[in-house]
Amino acid sequence: MRSRTRSLLVAALISLTALAGCSRATESPAPQQAATGPAAELRLGYFPNITHAPALIGDAKGFFAEELGATKLTTQQFNAGPDEVSALLGGSLDAGFIGSSPAINAFAKSNGQAIRLIAGSTSGGAQLVTTPDITAPEQLKGKIIATPQLGNTQDVALKKWLKENGLEIGEGPDRVTVQNLDNPRTLDLYRSGEIAGGWLPEPWSSRLVDAGAHVLVDEKTLWPGGQFPTTVLIVRTEFLQQHPETVEALLRGEQKAIDFAQNNQAEAKTVTNDAIKEFTGSSLSPAVLDRAFSELSFSSDPLAATFPQLSKDSVTAGAQQKEVDLNGFVDLTALNNVRQAAGLPAVDAAGLDEQG
């Protein structure tokens, strides 16, 4: 009954958002939930992608379970962010590793109530890869380019880039068709010549390169210092308020996974590849694995200062009608406790931890 009530409340919030847009100026914040001690269960989502390597490593190496102790860990795998958002807003998931654009979308859909950004995970590792004959943006006219799902991080990045380069999205010889496909399907259709490429996360951009594609745009070149949040960690606000020690335990496990990936790269590649094989049925070749890892960096810093620009990009791409009010989106209290205990510097919320 409690889960059903939560689902109904979330549905009501989503309906209100549709009527009122993304502005939260007249809305009252949800009442603070009282802490009730460690959770009996933590339901965690992530993708079987190298961009989610800290999640894969944290689960496979037992770092999450070790830190969570008596709290049961239940995991669920997703192909792209919008499906994971639905699970979070529907109350069937407590926390999730997810792309930056779906994280913003989840916050907007719930009128700034249902989720909080609590950590980073991965930067980089997203590219527009195409057939080798395409060497300039205008050569994409009349072509089909894939992204993992409508409104996901790579879908937003591609559509923003197309608009900035004066390219219309749609069907026909003078437009670029953007097709939303599961990543394995994108690889199959590229090999068969039915699509010209895709804006994809690792390891899928490297898998297309291995199949003969080349890099037309590396997303790192579009950001200052080459740093942008490919994967972050979000949690349901209610869960964070009721079980702060469980959230902190999850973050300790993530930090262990990040440290492992940074300090034991050869083993980290093996652990990640084995996890991907378990979930997808196929492992990555050594060349794809090496290339994919070289495109990424791992850190618990969510790069909060990039999110106002990411919100603007969602509008440019048509994923949002107006910029999202990000006040209250970020809560780094638990993360900075974990980082301090690990001897790491605190990270900045860029003012997004303040309620409007």
From TrEMBL:
Alphabetic keyword roster: Cell inner membrane, Cell membrane, Membrane, Signal, Transport
Cross-referenced Gene3D superfamilies: Periplasmic binding protein-like II
Places the protein is found: Cell inner membrane; Periplasm
Pfam family, one: NMT1_2
GO molecular function ontology, one term from the record: ATPase-coupled transmembrane transporter activity
Superkingdom classification of source: Bacteria
Entry keyword annotation includes Transmembrane: no
Record's GO cellular component terms: periplasmic space; plasma membrane
InterPro entries reported in the protein's UniProt record: ABC_SsuA_sub-bd, NrtA/CpmA_ABC-bd_dom
Signal peptide: 1-20
Keyword Translocase: no
Family: Belongs to the bacterial solute-binding protein SsuA/TauA family.
Protein name in the entry: NitT/TauT family transport system substrate-binding protein
